[in-house]
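Lay summary. Proteins are chains of building blocks that fold into shapes, and those shapes determine what they do. In this project we predict the shape from the chain. Here is one chain we studied, written as its sequence of building blocks.
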Amino acid sequence: MLLDSTVACVATVAMIGHTELIWIFAILFLLFGASKLPALARSVGKSMREFKKASKDITDEIESAEDDYPSNKARGNETLND
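And here is the predicted shape, written in a compact code that computers can read:
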């Protein structure tokens, strides 16, 4: 029961509507000004690109490490058959 209400609460908090987006953009406009917003957007885009690249590199490294070692299931089955 508690888990269901917690999940429902998190789901409603995660949804951002049109009004919230307008407020966020208005605050950003007031804080940074119109001239700095494009540079801010570029830097956020570059940061997201770098984060995605780093996470993909880590995932690829983990997958290649899994390919290098035999699985535990294969070793477990061999000991049961012996």
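What the prediction tells us: The chain is about 85% helix and 0% strand.
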